[in-house]
Amino acid sequence: MIGDKAKGSVSVCRESPKNRRDIDQQSRPSLHIEILSFILCITSPLSVIFYCIAYHHFDTSLYAAARAAYSEGFFYFFATRFPRPSLISVSCYAAWLALQAILYVCLPGEIALGPVTPAGRKLKYKLNGLTAWCLTVALWAVGTKSGLVDPTIIARNWEGLIWTTTVFCVVAALISYAKACVLPGVETENLKTGKSSIYSLKIE
């Protein structure tokens, strides 16, 4: 029954031109929302990198790291201590993403509808995340018990993983934003609905 509803979600949620204008008007963020979106886009990755630098170079002291950033200058502080990638960190993260994609596709789960998008659609989601998490933990336990997986691999490659995950998230958000601008899923579903570019990038 849920699946049948999901299949008809696009046609059910199509709106009239009047409703289209109402949705466009509601989707325009206020100035303080745009400012907050800009701050979040800039500070979120930098805060993660700052903590990583404090962990590696200042014995996890955020105060000491902040003092060094203030005295040295923020550009020099980050440029000389920016996390560096490693082959093993990139490989491990790519393998983890591939595993999660396989689990999402292969594991069973009910189909649920998400909130209404600015284009008036409801996207379909497969509710198998908890099952995928349990199976991931089980595979990790079996791998470490059998010696196939090093249980300290995350701790020993923390810096490289921070770099890999941060860069991946930024690139994925930019690709999603560009795709929504150039090749929207349906004709009416794009980012040209009165919303600011910064706000649209943040919600990606």
UniProtKB/TrEMBL annotation:
Gene Ontology terms, MF aspect: 7-dehydrocholesterol reductase activity
Domain of life where this protein originates: Eukaryota
InterPro entries: ERG24_DHCR-like
GO CC annotation, single: endoplasmic reticulum membrane
Swiss-Prot/TrEMBL keywords: Cholesterol biosynthesis, Cholesterol metabolism, Lipid biosynthesis, Lipid metabolism, Membrane, NADP, Oxidoreductase, Steroid biosynthesis, Steroid metabolism, Sterol biosynthesis, Sterol metabolism, Transmembrane, Transmembrane helix
Any one GO BP annotation for this protein: brassinosteroid biosynthetic process
Location in the cell: Membrane
KW ATP-binding (keyword) present: no
EC numbers, comma separated: 1.3.1.21
Topology versus the membrane: Multi-pass membrane protein
Ranges annotated as biased composition (Basic and acidic residues): 15-25
Parts of the chain that traverse the membrane: 35-58, 93-113, 125-142, 162-186
Top-level enzyme category: oxidoreductase
Primary location class: membrane
Family to which the UniProt record says this protein belongs: Belongs to the ERG4/ERG24 family.
Name this protein carries in UniProt: 7-dehydrocholesterol reductase
